[in-house]
């Protein structure tokens, strides 16, 4: 393992009203590592991912990206950051949502290019070139001028992945990127994610696609009861679950 | 026939005032209403929300005529004399801002949460998110109801005759008092309103098919 992990999560807790969803999550992700986060519905996988880039404000705990505290400015005193202050930190993490969340009023190219101009400060020509390169990566370069509504779900999700890639992120966060898709469209999206994994990108991936997790992930975290109740190398943990909870969870998914 | 031409020309001249009042009040309403809606939705300050809500209630729940009388006669009695046409524009514009503010708020409310989240996630600031992602979409959703409002406004300009703004109905009434061609004059006025509103109505239908709910 390298010296500083790319992502460190320490004592992460999150409650909604009186409901404790995350009850103390700790983990490190090394640069280039691919982590699959699995767990029952409602166990807090999305919440955990959204706490990493502070779309949810953690109730307690610390997130470090590349050694820098996320969401809290430390000098002169520790203070929660505003959304405006968070923007440059979020820009370092690409996020792919279950429901794609493309911006319907913008053509595909602009969906990918807009943050490159506004956040990275690229010129229009540079941003468009970057967008087209990223769209080529997800095999969507032929749809640059289309509107999102003209695309299938699988195509929209690939554009959403290109949009995240255009951030040149240190870390990619995927929240069940294929669960809103018709079954026949899942493969095209998984194969794109697979290609990204092969490039050595750092990824934190929430998924119910266990076969895919086994193939792509270095480690698997099983989130259950508000904690990571089991974790380990993908093959080990899936072949020999330690707890009944994970065993029955895997059996359910197999059906 | 001579009488008819006199009537028509007289009314058409005043139709210019109707058009000017409509367009100017519309301009005030769509700009001020958008500013109010932005403040209401995104300022994050409770007192601003309360103030905007109070403004909207105040202007929607008091008759337009009352507002016009306050601006035209009321302010004049306080020493602030505003000519009838600017007073009409101001009054209808201020009332309109309350209406368009509601329309825009509906537009913002129709957007999914994921739109904002995706924008913040790529590193856009809240201001960029509002201006580049949310407002363009909210405006599209708002266009058909804004068109309907414009149509309504054009017809409502007739009430500014009550503060002597020389628009179509004011002109019609003064012509009736002098010529007694009551039916002919009001019928001609009706036709002029129809001619003014028809293109606007067609435009509104177009907007509805293009940007109606469920598409934007
Ligand atoms: N904003 C919120 N307000 C209140 N409760 C919330 C909120 N977001 C999530 N929750 C609750 O927190 C729990 C965990 O939600 P989360 O979406 O993180 O689960 P998940 O593991 O991603 O589930 P799924 O597999 O269904 O996506 C759920 O019970 C959910 O209802
Ligand atoms: Mg989820």
The gross shape of chain A turns out to be globular
N→C terminal distance of chain A? 37 Å
CATH class of chain B: Mainly Alpha
Helix percent of chain A reads: 25-40%
| H and E string of chain B | HHHHHHHH
pLDDT averaged residue by residue of chain A: 94
CATH superfamily of chain B, by name, is: MetI-like
Helix count from the secondary structure assignment of chain A: 9
Heterogens: adenosine-5'-triphosphate, magnesium ion
Termini separation of chain B (Å)?
Answer: 52 Å
Sheet with the most strands: spatial strand order of chain A: 8-9-10-3-11-12
Tally of individual helices of chain B: 8
What CATH calls the topology of chain B is MetI-like fold
Helix content class of chain B: over 70%
Give the amount of beta strand of chain B, in percent: under 5%
Rg of Cα set of chain A: 18 Å
Major beta sheet summary of chain A: 6 strands, mixed
Most strands sheet of chain B:
none
Structural class of chain A: alpha/beta
What integer is the average pLDDT of chain B? 92
Model description:
The complex is a heterodimer of chains A (255) and B (216). Helix content of chain A is 37%, strand content 25%. Chain A contains nine helices and twelve strands. In chain A, helix 3 packs parallel to helix 5 (153-165), helix 4 packs across helix 5 and helix 5 packs parallel to helix 6. The mean pLDDT of chain B is 92. Chain B has eight helices and no strands. The longest helix of chain B has 41 residues, at 2-42. Chain B has a single domain (2-215), classed as MetI-like (MetI-like fold, Orthogonal Bundle), CATH 1.10.3720.10. Chain B is 82% helix and 0% strand. The chains are: A alpha/beta (255), B mainly alpha (216). Residues 16, 21, 39, 41-47 of chain A line the site of adenosine-5'-triphosphate (ATP).
